[in-house]
Amino acid sequence: MACMRCDVDHPAGASCPEVHDGVAVSASCLEGQRHGPLVFRRWLGAGALGTVYLAEYLPTGHRFAVKVLHPHLAAQPAMQRRFYAEAHALRELVHPHVARVLDARPGPGGLPCLLMEYADGESFSRLPMPLAPVEAVELLGQTLEAVESAHARGLMHWDLSADNLVLTRDARGERRVKVLDFGASAILSSSLSPEERARGMVVGSPAFIAPEQWSGEVVDGRADVYALGVVGYLLLTGRLPFGIGRAGELAPPEPHVLNPSVPPALSAVLLRALAPRPAERFPDARAFREELARCMDPRARAAEREAALVDDVELLVDIDITFDEDAAPVSQAPILLLPEMRAPEGNVTIFGQAIPEDGATPLHLALRAAAHAEPVLEAPAPRVAAPEGLDVRVSLAEGWTRVVANDVSVDGFFAAWEGALPPLAARLGVELSFAGRTVTCEGDVVRHVTGDEARTWGVAAGAFIHFAEPAPALCQWVAWMLEEGRRPEPRPDGELARLLARAAEAAKDPYVLLGARPDADFEEIRRRASAALRRLEGFRVRPLPSGQRRALEALRGRVESARRTLGEPLSRAGFDAVRGNLPGLARCVEAGLPDEEVEPLRHAFLSARPGSEAQARALFTQGHALEVQRALRAALSRYASALALDPLNVSWLRHYQELRQRAQGLTPSMPLVLHEGTMAPAALLP
User: Fold this and answer.
1) Mind giving me the DSSP string for 94-145?
2) Taking the model in full, what pTM does it have?
3) 159 is an active site residue
4) Domain residues of the chain, as ranges?
5) Where does each TPR repeat begin and end (predicted)?
6) Architecture of the structural domain at 379-484
């Protein structure tokens, strides 16, 4: 029976829980407690896995979300191991539409805690529905981009619902969807006993989980496609297609029947996503997203309206009808959201522990390009060079260390850093020398720029250091130094301008950037990269305007990235597999790339492309039969088609290469290059 004082059912004699927004919170609420340098400010909610708190880093005001594993789950060692393993995998998922996982470690009372980006906004379940079709498709499209990126890394959600999709606003005020709770379903599923599974217990939101999840069948990424079909149906109609579950094979009403503003083509797309059998749905999130965009194309909608007019011509003969294809669609009232306060991005946690950089993981490099998951940068990059002649040193445990400073102001500066960054909130001694005058003070580390951010921005990795309680004398000295250090900008360097223009044509293709052929060996790749870096180094000593210097440093970062990507067999194999560059893959195999190192990369590649492995095997079998019949040209063609679908199958690639060598002189040379680009003049070499 519920307590008469708090209207919550709890044991007799126990203290009443707190209530937030009408929801009871346990008396063991962690509000006000510390988690490392963070303070739990406010209870946000609780789910099946844990309780979520809003945490604040007091020196800067940055806000985070911290999920604390429920005590009854934390008491299971296997659950703790799975919790940390999932967190480790999710740290590599960096996408503008995913609430990023930053760290996982024990928190108050030893309970495992997950530190996440705080998504400040409204969940889809609280939006005013139904939405206008163009608005619903926009939100659904952003969500599918996030799911597509996660699937490319082998990460499935399997519990998508309108409650863990949040509409926020970014630093520019633009609407942005954030997907929460990746990995939660896998963690909870691991806690089910065999007896519970035998009784049909499943993890997930009943209205959103796919039929194969209910029946205990094998589940893949198409279950997430189904869940987003339910979300899209809800956004457009204001109701769930099957209520709280699914009854048999009954199809839901078509969305355009419930909401006349929905185009029939959009209805058909959503109903395909809601098909009861996975094979009848879209094969992956990308196909779903592309079909949504296609059905909302103005030309397709105009054709649909014309077709409707032809069908109803007898009823409309006396009515004048005009169409304005350029008219903007009717939308709902704007949703007012507070500006998002983002957590610092990067690979060093708020606790100061270093995480391996994304760039050191070949799998991440290979699949990031395939999923178009470039991180969106919303914090300012260090751009303004320090006054000429400024010398800055900071005091670390091993002594005073000289650093290169940028963005110097009366508040602090950015210090370029090599190696592990100092922990956030660390207080360091600072010494600044300029024009024969030296001042000393203390500074706090308030933000990191990690290797991943630095490569994208084209700057050095490092840390922002704010002066701790600066005295007026220090502020006056820094202002004087900045005024004295101002000099007229030098004229642009003509030779560098021509080089930058040629490099811009190379876009993001590292082969073209280095002027290397797709089948270049590793020695040539390294030689070209070293020569390019030596040439760029010569420009660094010249007087350059700030814009050209920034472009030069960005280009150096791209060359370094090209050398890392193409200069090592495993990273190059991942990149060439995504690009379909078989000659490059052949070079990796020749370099002695072990099968056991390639296999995890191959598994991730095929997981992102359901069905491709079976198609490739069928083509390779046909090629083998043709080879037995001595039809070498046809056999090589089949093998090449199989490798286009499964390029990281090392044994197939070796066999294909050997057959090509044996076939030299017996049959015309078969085209091996599947690389989309063509050989371009060397961008950076004279």
Assistant:
1) --TTB--EEEEEE-GGG-EEEEEE---EEEGGGS-SSPPHHHHHHHHHHHHH
2) 0.45
3) yes
4) 1-30, 379-484
5) 616-649
6) Beta Barrel (2.40)
